[in-house]
Amino acid sequence: MLKQLLSFHEDMKKWKLVIGSWLMFAVTISFIYSGTLLSFLASPSEPKTVETFQELSVAVAIGTHRVYGMKGTFYVPFLLNSKDEEFELIGKKMVENNWTTLVWKKRQKTL
Questions:
Q1: Mean pLDDT across 41-50
Q2: What are the helix (H) ranges across the chain?
Q3: Which spans are transmembrane here (predicted)?
């Protein structure tokens, strides 16, 4: 029983190309998946985001982020007159760098 030849059914010879192709496809997909998984584990895809005003004020002070507000709104005076140092720093940077945007109103056509 141990030294017998491996014999396949006659119909198996017809399917040899299909089975071989399927095995090559499975191996290729497996290698691609494992390589992609390792690349995601090796380096994070997203940097740390700003979640609080304290983190935002530090990011603005360093220069990695900007804070924009609409011109003529209460944002800048509120931030400048705030008792919190973080808000005041954000307001000062907005004024220093002119980080304000204009809001354009769409004109309505009259008949």
A1: 78
A2: 16-42, 53-62, 75-80, 85-97
A3: 21-42
Q: 40 by DSSP, 3-state: which?
A: helix
Do residues 72 and 66 lie in contact, with contact meaning Cβ atoms separated by under 8 Å? no
Tokens of 78: 């509120």
Contact status, residue 54 vs residue 86, Cβ threshold 8 Å: yes
Under 8 Å between Cβ of 50 and 59 = yes
Regarding predicted confidence, which is higher, 35 or 73?
35
Exposure string for 20-48, b = 16+ CB within 10 A, e = fewer: eeeeeeeeeeeeeeeeeeeeeeeeeeeee
Residue 3 confidence (pLDDT)? 75
CA–CA dist 88, 43 (Å, integer) = 36
